[in-house]
């Protein structure tokens, strides 16, 4: 999101500079359909965040209903009344699907338009396992809710740590076009000089602005962990709690969440186990992806050999991985102001000097 804003700001800078080239094209036509689509996407992202934040509460409400002796479809129906939009409508559709005999995994399709598949996958694994084997789902559902809350808290903390850097980057990118617009209004011959003999300088300023926007967008995007192994481990723990074996839990997760972080490694591991490779060979290939994967592979192999409770070991490992990710985000946030000095020095400041001093110097020479 922030990277897109920075690139958009760079494009706006270029558009503003190009608008100065010709007074007749200063006012651009805006397509109403495009504007509606952009507003719809922005509102959709806000609804998605609200739905994700409300999902743990929904899961806890369903767990409470099941603990009270309600059936799964009645637990969903009772939980729907207390949910905010759009989860209320999705929960009613899920309850209706369950009442018609749909499996829990199929009923959860009602949430796919509002909740990411990575968030739905642990819930689908838990409900699917307990629908097949029976038992009490309360503990596993509580773990699902805790998993989602921990994931959202980490994302919010990561966003808060880089908020100042994102705001600073956006301001830096907008300085040159705003300065150009100010001088175009305040100075009579500024525009004529810039679009006349100053065209090469204008093109150079536009190029520097775009390069600076892309550079800053890449820097502020670094702090976001793309490969969240802790979420993958947490989802596996939920499957183990539901009574599945490690391979069954991994297969259910891969089938229901194709976009979960580290899914490439998970698919490779599942394929190796399904093709009959020995655990040592399969987990050895998984461990080659990194140190964190090596620790997880060692835990699974150790638990398999000695009969240790794998779920408890993986819970501790997931907590350690999440703490490491938090420290990594803090480190990246502290380094961000220093790293931003390079695009500021080589892109933003030269563009500012060109916009502020280029036309006056050309007028003085003339």
Structure description:
- The chain is mostly helical and 366 residues long.
- It has a domain of 206 residues.
- 80% of the residues lie in helices and 0% in strands.
- Helix 6 runs antiparallel to helix 7.
- It is elongated and about 85 Å long.
- It starts with a helix and ends with a helix.
Quick tags:
366 residues; mainly alpha; single chain; 17 helices
Ordered list of secondary-structure elements with their pairings:
Layout: H1 2-21, H2 32-67, H3 72-80, H4 87-99, H5 104-107, H6 117-133, H7 138-161, H8 163-186, H9 190-195, H10 199-222, H11 229-241, H12 246-256, H13 263-274, H14 279-287, H15 291-306, H16 310-339, H17 341-365
Tell me the β content: under 5%
Overall mean pLDDT score?
76
Order of helices and strands: HHHHHHHHHHHHHHHHH
What gap, in angstroms, lies between the N and C termini?
45 Å
Radius of gyration computed on alpha carbons: 27 Å
Outline of this structure?
The protein is 80% helix and 0% strand. By secondary structure, the protein is mainly α.
């Amino acid at each position: 999101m922030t990277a897109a804003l920075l690139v958009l700001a760079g494009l706006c800078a270029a558009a503003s500079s190009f608008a100065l080239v010709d007074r007749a094209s200063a006012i651009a036509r805006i397509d109403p359909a495009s504007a509606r689509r952009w507003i719809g996407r922005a509102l959709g992202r806000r609804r998605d965040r609200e739905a994700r934040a409300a999902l743990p509460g929904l899961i806890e409400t369903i767990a409470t209903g099941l603990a009270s002796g309600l059936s799964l479809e009645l637990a969903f129906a009772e939980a729907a009344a207390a949910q905010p939009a759009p989860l209320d409508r999705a929960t009613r559709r899920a309850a209706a699907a369950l009442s018609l005999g749909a499996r829990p995994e199929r009923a959860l399709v009602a949430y796919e338009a509002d909740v990411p598949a990575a968030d739905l996958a642990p819930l689908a694994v838990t409900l699917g396992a307990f629908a097949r084997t029976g038992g009490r789902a309360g503990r596993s559902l509580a773990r699902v809710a805790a998993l989602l809350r921990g994931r959202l808290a980490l994302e919010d903390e990561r966003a808060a740590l880089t908020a100042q850097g994102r705001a600073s980057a956006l301001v830096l990118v907008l300085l040159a076009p705003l300065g150009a617009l100010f001088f175009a209004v305040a100075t009579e011959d500024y525009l004529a000089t810039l679009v006349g003999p100053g065209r090469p300088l204008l093109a150079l300023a536009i190029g520097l602005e775009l390069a600076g926007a892309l550079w800053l967008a890449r820097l502020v995007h670094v702090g976001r962990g793309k490969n969240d192994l802790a979420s993958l481990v947490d989802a596996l723990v939920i499957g183990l709690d539901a009574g599945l074996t490690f391979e069954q839990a991994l297969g259910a997760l891969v089938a229901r969440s194709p976009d979960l972080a580290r899914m490439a490694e998970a698919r490779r591991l599942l394929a190796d186990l399904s093709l009959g490779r020995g655990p040592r060979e399969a987990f050895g290939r998984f461990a080659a992806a990194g140190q964190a994967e090596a620790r997880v592979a060692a835990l699974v192999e150790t638990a398999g050999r000695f009969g240790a409770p794998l779920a408890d070991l993986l819970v501790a490992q997931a907590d350690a991985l999440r703490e490491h990710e938090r420290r990594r985000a803090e480190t990246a946030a502290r380094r961000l102001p220093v790293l931003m000095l390079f695009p500021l020095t080589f892109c933003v400041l030269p563009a500012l000097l060109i916009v502020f001093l280029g036309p006056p110097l050309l007028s003085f020479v003339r």
